[in-house]
């Protein structure tokens, strides 16, 4: 007996047919996360390096933080979380997607039942799952080092992480879908380094760096998790929203699957 189309999502796939769209997306997200966890270079970038930076900023005097009287860990921890989001949503995704595109994997997957929307949905979900792991690991380390985040700011911090993820994932796809794989590798690493050093991610943003995607993400997390003015958090979230719209529109316009 044929299963009505509106019941497929609940009853599972028809014999010999494709799985429901959501199952395919979740399965692809799991594939993306497993690949990331098996890649030593990506683990270094997304977990090990942020953890080392957290310890250096909070427990050594190698880098002087402007803390305004707060414990160093309270300023360092939000910046490290912003760094982790940027590393996973931007650098890792740009490089992986760029080389998948060069190998023809994107074009091949787009012709399978997963489809283009499923492929993009799986990548986005995979990034979010990886970020949850990062928050658990880095947040636990920060708490062990004495971090005391402001509970009332957690909701805004979650909004900042989601907006930052959308913004940097769109930028990653824009690079990966328009440049050669080698150029994506070099460009993504160089841009990541420049934003870390002078983009207001780890250190409090000043001047124009507040209006960079990296500075806006870092400031949104710092102000929300240290009990700073809500207006400053709202401004940073507005900046992130603007960059997200720009990068998403550019990606939709210029992304090439092959």
From TrEMBL:
The record's section on InterPro entries has: ABC2_TM, ABC_2_transport, Nod_factor_ABC_transporter
GO biological process entries: response to antibiotic
Could you tell me the keywords of this UniProt record? Answer: Antibiotic resistance, Membrane, Transmembrane, Transmembrane helix
The protein's location, in the record's own words, is:
Membrane
Cellular component GO terms, alphabetical:
ATP-binding cassette (ABC) transporter complex
State where it is primarily located: membrane
Give GO terms: molecular function aspect only. Answer: ABC-type transporter activity
Question: How is it placed in the membrane, per its record?
Answer: Multi-pass membrane protein
Residues annotated as domain ABC-2 type transporter transmembrane: 75-252
Pfam family of this protein, just one? ABC2_membrane_3
Q: Where are the transmembrane segments?
A: 43-63, 75-99, 124-148, 154-176, 183-203, 234-255
What name does UniProt use for this protein? ABC transporter permease
- Please report the organism this UniProt entry assigns to the protein: Ruania alkalisoli
